[in-house]
Amino acid sequence: MSNLTLSDFNRRNISFGLFRLYKGAAQRLGGLARANDTARTVVFILGIQRAGTSLMYWVFERDLQARIYRETSELTSGDTLEHVRLNPLPAVKARLARDKASLIVLKPLVESQRVHELTAAFPGSKVLWQYRHYQDVASSNLKAFGQDNGLKDLRPFVQDDPDNWRSQHSTAETRDTIRRFFREDMNPYDAAALFWWARSRLYFDLGLEGDRNVMLCRYEDLATDPAATMRRIYAFLGRPFPGDHIVRDVHPQSVGKGRVSRLSPEVDALCADLLARFDRLNDRAAPAPHPTTAAPQPAR
To answer: Which of 21, 68, 120, 159 is the most buried if burial means most Cβ atoms within 10 Å?
Structure first.
């Protein structure tokens, strides 16, 4: 939404707020109610923070039939520390059972390591695993959460903490690799990129590349070709595409914005290998006209 005046921005917010009120009322009144559980689609947006998952959820928010749960919601009310971990899954399931929407979208990024538990609790559910170039993610991470955030994210791996979501279900290889690089005075961009590497490789460690209910989603595809990307996603979900209006505010201005590499060569190479592995899988599934190495495009 670049080049908007304050009044333009306020009008859009008011308009979208009214849409959400209308959508909520329609769902509560049963105009869009599902006939039974088999008519409902539950979708988990997983991956790593700062990978464009919020953009994905905002696009789904424009679907009149969708009920969206953000990373922090009533489903995370039991987490008194960070307010992001899901409540026990039976409680989550009981809460979602009361929703009348036919499409329910959750974004529990901190539960990505529990993907098999999530899909087992909701048979027939779908997973969108979003990824983004590691340099952009590292830069966005530090800008959003502070220069020491990468170190904070890596310490649970170094300490082999089985309860912290960051390191939970990580492999010995992942933890050993992080210990090899970790220093309290390490380059903050190296730290943030290593966290991207550790959390992103869960996709392969958990064997998701062979799961037909998991779709790999590249942020750069969504940002540069949103309508085609969302049509492919809705086809994967087995649902009709609501229309191009759901992507009308998507722009590519953040693509490549953080790619002034501040990484050490070894960390850069480690992450580049994993990114290339993701890209090969993604392009094999659906060749995209906008590779992750494309130059950023002007906002439209």
So the answer is: 68
Range of the domain at 68: 12-285
Q: How far apart are CA 174 and CA 170, in angstroms?
A: 6
Q: For position 18, what pLDDT does the model report?
A: 59
| Residue partners of 120: CB distance under 8 A and separation at least 6 | none
CB neighbours of residue 130 within 10 Å: 22
How far is residue 69's CA from residue 106's CA, in Å, rounded to a whole number? Answer: 5
Residue range 247-256, pLDDT digits in tens: 988 877 667 6
Q: What is the pLDDT of residue 47?
A: 96
Q: Does residue 96 fall inside a structural domain? A: yes
Residue 7 resides in a domain: no
3 state SS of 187: coil
pTM (2 d.p.) = 0.84
Whether 1 is in a domain gets the answer no
Q: What is the DSSP letter of 297?
A: P
CATH number at residue 77: 3.40.50.300
Residue 69 counted as domain residue = yes
Statement: residue 15 has pLDDT above 80: no
Number of domains composing the chain? 1
pLDDT for residue 24 is more than 80? no
In terms of Cβ atoms closer than 10 Å to its own Cβ (0-12, 13-18, 19+), residue 238 is exposed
